[in-house]
Amino acid sequence: MITVYGYPKTRTNRVTWMLEELGVEYQYKLIDLMKGEGRSEPYLAINPSGKVPSLSDNGLILTESAAMLTYLGDKYGTPPLMPTPGSPERAMHDQWLCFAIAELEQPLWTVGKHKFALPKEHRVPEIFETAVWEFQKALGLLSKGLGDSEYILGNDFSAADILIGHTLFWGLSFKQPIEQENLSAYINRLKNRPARLSSIEKENQAAGQ
């Protein structure tokens, strides 16, 4: 049985969204970050960083969301959700997965770290302007890469869209403007996917929200 350790409105939703798209049974273990459960000894034994998500599957433990999506897609999925390893489609999929983490998410996480995640003595508010500039630059590259396609690999939804879409939703929650018309249409296609809505509902239920 797959177990996802997480908390609502975090990167955990990337994993539960993927599992809902796959139709794979899983259990959701709430780690109440607001109550300090991320720093508890039992959870640190699973994920020494104290962050969410974490995933356990038959003794395997993963602690990076992009790796979880790739693992789940390879084990339980089929193309186009997870393209075949070694194919050109998989190469492009993995490239966009890396882009989402290294370019699109990175400036948002910089903002998050310097607003609330880091200890106050290590926060540098002056970095916000640069981070916002970096995010807008990444949006431009994403818009060019998406072009007129419905999804990042063309007309078929893939796991890369989950990671990119979640990061775009994160940007909107940080009140960052996303002005490219093709990205706005892309966001609208992603936000109402039944698997995404189901994953959010299950996470909120687990947290009593």
What is the ordering of alpha helices and beta strands? EHEHEEHHHHHH
CATH topology of the largest domain: Glutathione S-transferase Yfyf (Class Pi), Chain A, domain 2
Q: Give the CA-based shape.
A: globular
In the CATH hierarchy, what is the class of the largest domain?
A: Mainly Alpha
Pfam families: GST_C, GST_N
Protein name: Glutathione S-transferase family protein
Domain GST N-terminal: 1-80
GO molecular function: transferase activity
What would your notes on this structure say?
The protein has helices at residues 12-22, 41-46, 65-76, 88-117, 128-146, 159-173, 181-191, 194-206; strands spanning 2-6, 26-30, 54-57, 60-62. The chain is an alpha+beta fold and 209 residues long. The chain has two domains: 2-81 and 195-206, Glutaredoxin; 88-193, Glutathione S-transferase Yfyf (Class Pi), Chain A, domain 2 (Up-down Bundle). A hairpin with a 2-residue loop joins β3 (54-57) and β4 (60-62). One of its GO terms (molecular function) is transferase activity. InterPro entries: Glutathione-S-Trfase_C-like, Glutathione-S-Trfase_C_sf, Glutathione_S-Trfase, Glutathione_S-Trfase_N, GST_C, Thioredoxin-like_sf. Keywords: Transferase.
